[in-house]
């Protein structure tokens, strides 16, 4: 417990006054021994299809503009996706689904995300996760989630002046995010809102200038997209509502 409290204190009390500085600090974190060992092992051993590539093998920071009005919250980087490319939801099939939907809704400059230098831009939208390192079996522990929590607190503080909507991909992100939003200036209703696809709750501002719209969506994992539990149309519908309520007017 002492390690968790120490990391949380460093992440929230250290003065990080820009998103760029936050992203740099996140990418240098080594707080969770199990995750450090795993992400670096994957980066060394690689997948055969990517044997000629240099893996990122570090924590993956958020991606998108610092004045975003819409925030998308996932789970954690994929071992051979973002842990390889160094950018959220880039280089794997989950990202294929997400970025295609963002592009279709005018929130991304292109429908594919292959590597960090592919020219992809997000419009008024930023993507982050409650855990920034790839975990074994895509399952971070509660302690690892809590250790990483300070980075999410800092990110929300920096985004709060412009952020008006959040789309949370999956129940893990929903459970991780709501308490942080409660600490960050919005009122969490009691009983706490339950996750579900299409769930929508409006959080009243406590110390923030405006309410915050929070939406739930099934995660864009292959388990959901390959079985049809989450279709592109379902995802686009949630993104469209969130973008509209965020006041985004993406380019046509």
Structure commentary:
The chain is an alpha/beta fold and 252 residues long. It has a single domain (2-246), classed as Uracil-DNA Glycosylase, subunit E (3-Layer(aba) Sandwich), CATH 3.40.470.10. Helices cover 40% and strands 9% of the residues. It contains 9 helices and 5 strands. It has helices at 2-13, 19-27, 33-45, 82-85, 93-104, 142-159, 171-183, 222-225, 232-246, and strands spanning 70-73, 125-128, 165-169, 200-203, 212-217. A 5-stranded mixed beta sheet has the order 2-1-3-5-4, sandwiched between helices. Strand 4 (200-203) and strand 5 form a beta hairpin. Residues 1-13 have low confidence and may be disordered.
Topology:
Elements: H1 2-13, H2 19-27, H3 33-45, E1 70-73, H4 82-85, H5 93-104, E2 125-128, H6 142-159, E3 165-169, H7 171-183, E4 200-203, E5 212-217, H8 222-225, H9 232-246
Helix pairs in contact: 1-6, 5-9, 6-7
Pfam families: UDG
Keywords: 4Fe-4S, DNA damage, DNA repair, Hydrolase, Iron, Iron-sulfur, Metal-binding
Domain Uracil-DNA glycosylase-like: 61-239
